[in-house]
Design goal:
Length: 210
């Protein structure tokens, strides 16, 4: 099963992807996670990506496309994958279609998680992540409920950066909703409900494909 998760920053893509990966055993490809790991390790990719990420902008298409192409060639993606945070521009969407066609694969479903921007600003202000296992939690988690690791706030979750990320999403990524609707792949899910309810809706869609 090959899944694309679309949604604004803070819509809950990472949270839902974690549930999907656990239940359906697909490879999780999060471009944000890959880029943050590169920034942390100070690799050439990380050094290039950091300034774009800190400003809430997009890392250049050429860089991200290459990264996803390489990732899709790894063996674990053969059992299926979930793309979380990619594609984010029309150029990325076309590159993805080309790459998958070369690999003899296809997207089975595109799930767009929609949440009101005011809710998103609140969610991101209180988001905290585990430094150790990347668990996604909130400011009420003083330590990671999974591994007891230290929780931290992402640099790009500052209010002014969040506003820029939302604007960039509106401009660059929302056109993909129509792009995938036109290909009969898109389903929209209301993400402004408790995590379990959102996941139940997603699970219903995925079980139909299985
Ligand atoms: P990335 O890491 O992909 O960030 P994003 O898309 O902005 O999404 P987030 O990770 O912020 O949010 P999410 O939707 O995963 O929400 P989450 O589940 O954490 O990208 C970061 C940066 O990398 C980009 O800005 C860009 O610079 C670069 N980048 C990445 N991909 C790129 C690409 N393809 N091209 C170019 N540049 C790229 O949830 C958020 C919070 O809400 C959490 O606290 C969570 O607990 C809570 N929550 C989740 N669901 C619910 C719910 N239903 N109810 C209540 N709270 C909830």
């Amino acid at each position: 099963m090959n899944i694309v998760l679309l949604g604004a920053p803070g819509a809950g893509k990472g949270t839902q992807a974690a549930n999907i990966v656990t239940e359906y055993d697909v490879a999780h490809i999060s471009t944000g996670d890959i880029l943050r790991a590169a920034v942390k390790a100070q690799t050439p990719l990380g050094v290039e990506a950091k300034s774009y990420m800190d400003a809430g902008g997009l890392v250049p298409d050429s860089v991200v496309i290459e990264l996803v192409k390489e990732r899709l060639q790894e063996n674990d993606t053969e059992k299926g994958f979930i793309l979380d945070g990619f594609p984010r521009t029309s150029t990325q969407a076309v590159a993805l279609a080309t790459e998958l066609s070369e690999l003899g694969r296809d997207i089975d479903i595109v799930i767009a998680v929609s949440v009101d921007p005011d809710v998103i600003v609140e969610r991101l202000a209180s988001r905290r992540l585990c430094r150790n296992c990347s668990y996604i939690g909130s400011a009420s988690d003083t330590s990671c409920p999974v591994c007891h690791g230290e929780m931290y706030q992402r640099d790009d979750d500052r209010a002014e950066t969040v506003r820029n990320r939302l604007e960039v999403y509106e401009k660059a990524t929302t056109p993909l909703i129509e792009y995938y609707r036109g290909r009969d792949l898109l389903t929209e899910v209301d993400g402004d409900r408790p995590v379990e309810e959102v996941y139940a809706s997603i699970k219903k869609l995925l079980d139909k494909l299985n």
